[in-house]
Amino acid sequence: MSLDPADWNQTRATGRRMVDDMLGWLETVRDRPAWTSVPAEVKARFALPVPRQGAPLEAVYDDFLRDVLPYPTGNVHPRFWGWVMGTGTTTGVLAELLAATMNPHLAGYDQSAALVERQVIAWLVELMGFPSDASGLLVSGGTEANINGLMAARVAKAGWDVRAEGLRAGPPLTLYGSAETHSWINTACETMGLGRQAFRVITTGDDYRIDVAACRARIDADIAAGLRPIAIVANAGTVGTGATDDLVALRALADEKDLWLHVDGAFGALVAWTPSRAMVAGLETADSLAFDLHKWGYMPYEVGVALTRRADAQTAAYQPAGGAPAYLKSPDGGIAVDTTYFADRGLQLSRGFRALKVWMSMKEQGVDALGAAMQENIDQARRLGERVAAHADLELLAPVTLNIVCLRYAPAGLPEAALNALNQAILVALQERGIAVPSQTMLQGRFAIRVCITNHRSRDEDFDVLVEAVAAIGPELAAR
Ligand SMILES: *Cc1c(COP(=O)(O)O)cnc(C)c1O
After folding, report:
1. Do 382 and 444 touch, CB atoms closer than 8 A?
2. The pLDDT value given to residue 338
3. According to the model, what pLDDT value does residue 337 have?
């Protein structure tokens, strides 16, 4: 039984309406609130039973228009600056339609989609300053990209065949990175069976950059205790404040101790595409580099990138031992013959056509324009930081070094002890009133309203709205 439309013309008309509606929705995104909670009656409709019988596509689409479309995360909105979320590009939206239409399987194969991914990786290798024989893979996101790098590090630096014999066949493996490292590191250590304690948390200075001397001391102490250090995990753009570790010093330390240098550049690595690239100097010397394109690359979810100059270690970490199983082996001709077998570079065997939205967005916008949009975000953060610092009732809680501004409402006269709860309430009000969506973090015990700008739709006036709203909501809530 075919699941294709009974009436292609009808479906074509509905499809055209969808494309029209979606482009219109993006065009008018600024007119809507930055975020809206899902109302109870809408939530209730998501408890309906399994739809055993079908319905016309038009009716299903009406459900989407009524219950789904009006309640997005909000990251498409010009005043969404929460966590680290990308905005998406319109070209990316259309590319997803094209990619899903072709519906290719990207394990490898002799097909155009594999050439697209190969080309995208080659572009990214060049843009990040990696050698031309570096390897890469498009993955689900930063977490998977980071794990991909550490899996290669484990194979390269453990000193025995970890894949065959497991971790128990040698001394405990350890990793080193700053206290500002994103929580993916715990997921990685747990998933890899190393245990969270394998990650040695190194302190930072007031600039939130790793203390390199403390890192060296910890490595030495662990070696003396019989442990096996394998990698340093450096940050290019920490999630808290956007700080970048001294990558040059960490490369030297890794070389001195014969360790792998992995860089988590989830969003910070993209600075390499902007005029501010000196901020991430040394990035190109990493053994492996993880970054997202769905954050600061502005591409629609999901797409992260795992690059490595050690192509050998990447495949050694993932290629099936003893070669491909019989059902995957390539004969001497036909579709299964291909030089790039992406499935040997990472966790996924069945893989989708993530590369198309990247390829089309890069070609259509041009990488210089993407870099200029990121530079504009960096400049917006600096200007917002200056405004906050100059405002009598607002306080800047961390240096603005990249695209993150951590601030709070702290007028003279209010006791320090009241400020955390008050600023938390201000943040909730900003979100619930649909004004803007920053998120939060704690910095040295102080609650920060955290504005992370990875948004190509934000304009200066949007930050004016934020500053004025915080300054107005602060006294309103403080008076309660
Ligand atoms: C977002 C982020 C991650 C995780 O990336 P995902 O794409 O969410 O999996 C890792 N590190 C940093 C610094 C991040 O900002």
Report:
1. no
2. 62
3. 77
* Cα radius of gyration rounded to whole Å, the chain: 24
Bond from prior residue into 256 cis (ω within 30 degrees of 0): no
Nearest-CA residue for atom 14 of ligand 1: 266
| CA 26 / ligand 1 centre spacing (Å) | 25
Could you tell me what percent of the chain has a pLDDT over 90?
Answer: 95
Cα gap 418→415, rounded to integer Å: 6
Starting at the edge strand that comes first in sequence, how are the strands of the sheet with 199-202 ordered?
Answer: 135-139, 304-308, 288-292, 260-264, 228-235, 173-178, 199-202
pTM: 0.96
Edge to edge, the sheet with strand 437-443 lists 80-81, 437-443, 446-452, 404-409, 394-396
Q: Which of 306, 298, 271, 285 is closest to 149 using CA atoms?
A: 306
Ligand 1, atom 5: closest residue by C-alpha: 142
* 175 in contact with ligand 1, CB cutoff 6 A: no
Q: Are strands 173-178 and 288-292 parallel, antiparallel or unpaired?
A: unpaired
Q: CB neighbours (10 Å) of residue 408?
A: 26
8 Å CB contact between 324 and 349: no
Q: Is the CB of 142 under 6 A from ligand 1?
A: yes
Q: Is the pLDDT of residue 327 over 90?
A: no
The length of the chain, given as a count of residues: 480
Angle formed at CA 472 by CA 408 and CA 400, multiple of 5 degrees: 30
128-138 tens-digit pLDDT: 999 999 999 99
CATH number for the domain running over 368-478? 3.90.1150.170
pLDDT digits 0-9 by tens, 371-410? 999 999 999 999 999 999 999 999 999 999 999 999 999 9
Burial of residue 420 (CB within 10 Å: 0-12, 13-18, 19+) is middle
Ligand 1 contact via 264 beta carbon (within 6 Å): yes
CATH fold of 104-365 reads: Aspartate Aminotransferase; domain 2 (3.40.640)
As a whole number of angstroms, the distance between CA 395 and CA 406 comes to 9
Is there an atom of ligand 1 within 6 Å of 180 CB?
no
Pocket test for ligand 1, best of 85, 143, 199, 267 (most atoms within 8 A of CB): 143
In this structure, how many other beta carbons lie within 10 angstroms of the beta carbon of residue 459? 14
